[in-house]
What does this fold into?
Amino acid sequence: AVQLEQEKEDAAKRERELQEKQAERDRAAAKAAQDRAAQERVRLEAMSEFRDRLDEVIGDAVRGDFTHRMKLKSTDQDLGQLAEGINVLLANVDTGVAEAGRVIKEIAAGDLTGRMDGDFGGAFAQLQADVNSTLVSLNALVGDLAERGENVEGTSSELKSAAEDMSRRSEQNAASLEQTSAALEEMSVSV
It folds into this structure.
């Protein structure tokens, strides 16, 4: 009977240990589920913040303002890297557009000596090459027009000088003709 009692106590003790281990596993599983839920909430908040900031900078870019950047409070590395990539894109577009605008403003002010400066790639490198090539062509055209203008001015001066010389000779011829006419008149009165 004592042995049976001992076995019952041992069995009860094992049952309590098993229940405690199961309860501990259940608590750990519940804690893990809560941690996953908390991480998911943080991730969803980070995604929401990312989407809001992205909407803002895209809206600004659509309106032609490339100066705003994505600033995230989240510490999510993947979203941070994506935001940084978008910021680099916006900075490149802003720099390219600003530099092209600066050169066009100089052209509008009559300064054809400027160049689109910077280290651009892709479409902005092509824009830079085209703008700079256009400036070289415009400078050549203006130089050619200035040279032609000088030639026209020289030819115009020669024509003016020739016209003045012809005018003097015409006056001299008219005076000479008057003298001849007066002499003929005197002769005809004498006859």
